[in-house]
Design a protein that fits this description.
Largest sheet: 6 strands, mixed
CATH class of the largest domain: Alpha Beta
Distance between the termini: 38 Å
Strand content: 15-25%
Number of domains: 2
CATH topology of the largest domain: Rossmann fold
Number of helices: 21
Strand order of the largest sheet: 4-5-15-10-11-14
Structural class: alpha/beta
Helix content: 40-55%
Length: about 475
């Protein structure tokens, strides 16, 4: 049986179902499998002709015992999770004419137009599957920098076993992202806008930690998480790296590079673990915006959280890359005592300087760049003018970083650039990039689902960041009491 443990506590093992429903381990650490499965080049060759859903079934089966989820049920959960995408293909690959060695991986064809839909739909369906089997109910607390909240809200809507609270900071998400949450009119999804937050979703992550630390509240409301602290999210995000490789590689075994817009390191963690499993990767390009915590971490070895800056690529406006710890665990030999000591040191000092040997271990196969707002907009404009392709600001950050590091890559080696959101979620950014009024921007700046959301009324709770813990706690309890 595959068992799971906390990255900072190697003594206690749990099964997959327990790890998923808990979200985080009791010690506050992140769950990981005891060992990562291995995938051979021969196995990759056999998988080459599989659809996305078929490939997801093969990879996820490596992590889940049949006694936990049967093959038939797993297949159904995966298929249901991608059944309402706007494209017949779950993931679309688009070669660039202006950069023949680069392919854009479009991950934004789900119901809320971001890559979060791909894993979120599956994870929420998995939650519902386990909870229905147990006859239980959970309350999901979701902090969002723009895309996680809509994806979670959509996936949870109408599920009797789940209730979701979506927290977002005013000014840190676009109007389009906000409406994707506030126009959900199902009784089990609640949206809360926070005014006066300086650090966006990082502040809200801290709020959730405080709520979860309240034992009485946690027991009453049965909290859990589908943010990327949940192992199932990262596990599912390994799949689109394998799928991209099999779609793009000319010869199985050749290394391919991946440029990933990065904030919390969740998406990139999925790729890094895919490489640990055997995926032939040349380099990962860690693409930060001006919130350059990851660039600093990979270039100087210094881990510190900074004040969050508001950038056009708002979904990666994050200064606390929580999933880096999960990757670090595997990169440095799976030693829980090291992770525990490092995290304790960070908690006391507020920053952590890794030694040269540790840096060498986790930097293997990574290049990093921080892309400013001007570069982001210029990349969007240049790509559109060169070949009529409109990329979202997060994909633009990844593409700009990739082009900047190309001299350090193997000449003419294939590269994937991950486009993680549809450009229609950022019409004002597109207009700024193209120097046009929003009304004159290309058709890809609009999407039917977002246009429909503008015709719906909004329902949202609102509070000031000052005294937020007390206000939110009282709100959760009042809504829970009214619903009982």
């Amino acid at each position: 049986m595959t068992r799971y443990l906390s990255i900072s506590d190697g003594d206690n093992r749990v099964d997959f179902e327990t790890a998923v429903l808990a979200g985080s381990a009791p010690d506050g650490g992140l769950y990981v499998p005891e060992r990562l499965p291995s995938v051979s080049l021969e196995q990759l060759t056999k998988w080459r002709q599989l659809t996305y859903s078929e490939l997801a079934f093969e990879i996820i089966s490596l992590f889940i015992d049949r006694a936990c989820v049967s093959g038939a049920d797993l297949e159904r959960l995966i298929d249901t999770s991608v059944s309402d995408f706007f494209s017949p293909e779950t993931v679309v690959h688009r070669p660039l004419n202006s950069h023949p060695e680069v392919t854009i991986q479009e991950l934004f064809h789900g119901p809320t137009l971001s890559f979060k839909d791909i894993a979120m739909g599956f994870v929420v369906n998995l939650f519902d599957y386990f909870l229905q089997r147990r006859g239980e109910r959970r309350t999901l607390l979701v902090a969002t920098s723009g895309d996680t909240g809509p994806a979670a809200g959509y996936a949870v809507s109408g599920k009797q076993s789940l209730e979701a609270w979506l927290f977002y900071a005013a000014g840190f998400v676009t109007e389009e992202q906000e409406r994707q949450m506030t126009t959900l009119m199902t009784d089990n999804v609640h949206t809360l806008r926070v005014l006066g937050s300086e650090n966006g979703s990082d502040d809200l992550d801290q709020l959730i930690l405080q709520l979860v630390d309240d034992h009485e509240l946690r027991q009453k409301l049965q909290f859990s998480s589908v943010n990327s602290v949940n192992w199932a999210r990262v596990m599912m995000q390994t799949v689109h790296y394998f799928y991209a490789y099999l779609q793009v590689a000319k010869i199985i075994g050749e290394p391919i590079n991946f440029a990933v817009p990065s904030g919390g390191f969740g998406n990139l963690c999925g790729g890094a673990l895919a490489r640990e499993m055997g995926l032939p990767v040349g380099h990962f390009i860690v693409a930060n915006n001006r919130n350059s915590c990851l660039t600093e971490l990979f270039e100087s070895g210094l881990y510190r959280e900074k004040r969050v800056l508001n950038c056009p690529s708002s979904a990666i406006d994050i200064s606390s890359p929580s999933n880096f710890w999960r990757y670090l665990y595997f990169a440095t030999g799976c030693e829980t005592h090291k992770i525990k000591a490092w995290r304790a040191q960070l908690a006391v000092a507020g920053e952590l300087q890794f030694d040269a040997n540790t840096m060498a271990q986790y930097r293997r196969g990574f290049l990093s760049r921080s892309i400013d707002d001007r570069q982001t907009l210029e990349t969007m404009a240049r790509l559109y003018h060169d070949e009529g392709y409109l990329i979202d600001p997060h994909g633009a950050v990844a593409l700009a970083a990739l082009l900047d590091v190309q001299p350090h890559l193997i000449a003419d080696s294939p590269s994937l650039c991950l486009a993680t959101a549809h450009p229609s979620k950022f019409p004002k950014v597109v207009a700024d990039a193209l120097q046009l009024p929003v009304s004159e921007c290309p058709p890809a700046t609009a999407h039917v689902s977002l246009q429909q959301a503008k015709l719906l009324s909004q329902r949202v709770y609102e509070c000031e960041y000052q005294n937020i813990l007390t206000v939110v706690k009282n709100t959760l309890l009042k809504v829970h009491a009214d619903g009982v």
